[in-house]
Amino acid sequence: MSYRLSLLDKSPIPEGENAAVALQRTVALAQTAERLGYTRFWVAEHHGFPGLASSAPEVLIAYLAARTRSIRIGSGGVLLPHYSPYKVAEIFNVLASLAPGRVDLGIGRAPGGLPASTRALRVLHASGPAHDFSAQLSELDTFLSVHTAEEGAARALPQPPVSPERFLLGGSPDSARLAGERGWNFVFAGQHNGDEKTIEASFEAYAGAGGKGPVLLAVTALAAPSPDEARSLTDALKIVRVTLDDGHSVNLGSEEQAAEYARQAGAVAYHTEIRKPQIVSGTAEQVRRELERLQARFGVREFIIDTPPAAAEKRLASVMLLAGEAPALAA
C-alpha cells in the first residue's frame, strides 16, 4: 500500500439509541483503528443535528487521547468562524500537552449546522462585521507559534512539547491556496465535492502557493464482503441540496432538514435537488483499486476515510476490511 489510511467519525446516533452509546462507539472505533494501523482518527464538528453527537470535538479528542496510545487524534475540523483564535490555540495547546506528538488541529470554515445553531454560536459577535477567515487563520497561527511573544502580547499557554500538526480543510482552490500561503497542510474535502478537476486545481493551487505539507484527500468509502452488499448499503443514500430565494445553497441529509434549514433562515421560498452522494464502495479490493487510482493521479499520500451512514457493525466491518493489508493487522 503506497498511501496511508485515516478515519473521520461524526458519532452518528442510530434511531433508537442515544448520544452516550454513539460516543462510546466512537471510542471503540478509535481503538480498533489504532489496532489496525490507521494513521489518524479525526472527529467532526456539527451543530443542531439530532442524529449526530459530534458537537464538541475538542472534548472528544481529550477523551480519545486518554483511551488510545499511539494513533494521532484530531479535529476534522474545528469551525473557526464561530470561535476566538486565541481560545482555539489554548485548547489545542492543552491537548498537545496531554498527548505530546499525537494531536492534529484541523480547521474548517463551514457553519456546520442549521441557521439557529449558527446564530447561537455567534451571538456575541452577530451584530458586528463579518470575520475575515484568512485573518482569523493568521491570528491562530500566531498564537500557536513557539516563538516568544512580544512583551505585553497575549500568549496561548501552555506551550506543549510538540505543537499540534495543522491542517486546513477545504473544497476549492481558494482554500488550498490559503493553506499553502499560511504553511498549513491541506485536506481536500472530497466527501463533499468529488469533482476531479476541482481536486486537481486545488492541489495545483496549494503547490503554487508554496505548500510543502503532505497532500491529503478525504473520501466517503465503504467496503463490504461482496459488491451486492456494498450496493445495498449505499444505493438508497442521497444528498438534498437546498437553495434559498437569496441564492444561498447547502447540502443536507433529508427533505425534512432542508425544510427546517429554510424555515430557520427565514426564506420566503426555496427549492431542493436530490443528488447521489459520491461514495467509493464495493469489496475491499475494489475500494483499494479506486484509492490507488486517485493516489496515482493526484499524488495523494494519505486518505481520510469518512464512512457513510450504515449499521454500526457494517461500518466497523468496512474499517476492518480496508485495513486488511496494514502491517498492524498481521501483528
UniProtKB/TrEMBL annotation:
GO CC annotations on file: cytosol
Domain Luciferase-like: 16-296
InterPro entries xrefs: Bact_Lucif_Oxidored, CmoO-like, Luciferase-like_dom, Luciferase-like_sf
Domain of life the protein comes from: Bacteria
One Gene Ontology term of the molecular function aspect: oxidoreductase activity, acting on paired donors, with incorporation or reduction of molecular oxygen
Annotated Gene3D superfamilies: Luciferase-like domain (3.20.20.30)
Coiled coil: none
NCBIfam families: oxido_grp_1
Family classification: To bacterial alkanal monooxygenase alpha and beta chains.
Protein name: LLM class flavin-dependent oxidoreductase
Source organism phylogeny: Bacteria, Pseudomonadati, Pseudomonadota, Alphaproteobacteria, Hyphomicrobiales
